[in-house]
Structures are given as structure tokens and as C-alpha cells.
């Protein structure tokens, strides 16, 4: 019976994570970098296809870009936890059936 309750907890947590995934909001993979020796300016940097792409943010868009990058990190955390839980479910399902 304890195994069944564990499975219920895992399934409930997965449902919670799926709802959280839907609430994450806009995402951008990359990071904010500051470029310049004297006049330091914020840029958003993305490495894609072996090339680094940057866009100028300025002070006005820096907060928004940071929020999008943080949302991406949160989404990654959710996916990692879901992966661990789903691996447990798959392993238990496999062990229960001959």
C-alpha cells in the first residue's frame, strides 16, 4: 500500500509541475552580458549553431530580458524534476510486470 501512495504522490507532483510549466511565461535561452571598457552596455547573448548572437538591450529592456532568461532556467528546473519522477514511474512499472 505504501508503494501505491508513493505513486500517487509522484503523479500529483507531476500534475503540479505541468501546471507550473504553463505559468512560466516568455522564455529566452541565453544570458545578459555587459560589453565595453568605459561605456559598459548590457547585451543579450545567445550561442546557436556554433555562433554567438548578441542584441543590444539598453537599460530599458535589460529587466525584461533577465526575466525571460530566469523563466527559461525555471522551465529547465521543472523539466529536470519531471524527468526524475517519470524515470521512477517507468522503473516501477517495468519492475511490476514480468
Short description:
The protein is of the alpha+beta class and 98 residues long.
Describe the structure.
This protein has one domain. It has two helices and three strands, in the order αβββα. Strands 1-2-3 form a three-stranded antiparallel sheet, covered by helices on one side. Helix 1 (2-22) runs antiparallel to helix 2 (58-96). The protein has 98 residues and is α+β, with helices and mostly antiparallel strands.
Which secondary structure elements does this structure contain, and how are they paired or packed?
Elements: H1 2-22, E1 31-35, E2 41-48, E3 51-56, H2 58-96
Antiparallel strand pairs: 1-2, 2-3
Helix pairs in contact: 1-2
* Beta-strand percent range: 15-25%
The major β-sheet equals: 3 strands, antiparallel
What's the shape? Answer: elongated
Calculate the mean pLDDT score and round it: 91
